[in-house]
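Predict the 3D structure for this chain.
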Amino acid sequence: MAHQKNNKLAAVLRGSLMSTLILICAVCAVAQAPKVFGFGGYNSDQTALVGGMDDVTLTLVNRTSVPVSYFWVDNNGKETLYGTINPGNSTRQGTYAGHWWRFKFGNGAIVGAFAATNRTTQMVEIVSGPINAGPIWNQKDAIDKCNRIASSRGGAWTGGWWTTVQGQMSVCDIANLRFPPPPPTNVNLNIRNMTKSPVRDYNMSNGASLMGTIGVNGSIWRRPIPGNRWRFVLDNGTVVGDYVVSQSGTQEVRVISGPVNAGPIWNQQDAVEKCNRLARARNAVWTGGWWTTVQGQMSVCELAQLNY
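Done. Predicted structure below.
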């Protein structure tokens, strides 16, 4: 009888363990999808890595004569189909910097793969064009020669071919990925530092590149590309916030700070708690500064935020 009870108990425990594992796996599956979403960073084998979370919007344009499907590639190399773009059409897809996307024709031929950079908006064009293949005598010969040419060029054959000089030259329609450069900037960004601390500005769409330091009460002009994400950091390392550059025109970002009443603050530990709580409530950051204005009754925290 004891043996039967132990068997029942073991079965219950196994069932509980399986339920827990299924729940954990379900959570993992949700965490690994892109912009519904996944992780930043990537491997050279075209799989995603755990890392940063920079929002990116891709514009995918199919300039070939055949439909193209696009797949997100997870960190195990598994593909997830996200959509199909018909000839001449385009679509927008959200993702994160470092995520890999693979593009295929309906027959499974891989046109190419692309890892999103940390530029906020990016375009990927699927294009095709004629490549000389020598004489092609029939469809079987075309399949052999055109696929070989596509492979040597890192692309895919669309299935199209035609003869340009009878008995001497034919061409294969070969597709590849193309990445147009961003449009030239016509943006003027004026950054004004209205805090009591020097402020560093970073272009986060260019690998967190430090652009410079703006002194107290100073200002500087930048010429960013539309869609760039600009970050502002106080001299003590506190991140004040990010600003996404709009499409055109003259823009101004002010990094401002000022005192906000916090009630009595008794010591530094009390300041850390009260000032950070006050900053969160006002969508700001605490600069680290505080002082008492009425002994035993009122102190203030110095908070900073972006104004634009």
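Helices lie at 2-31, 139-152, 268-281.
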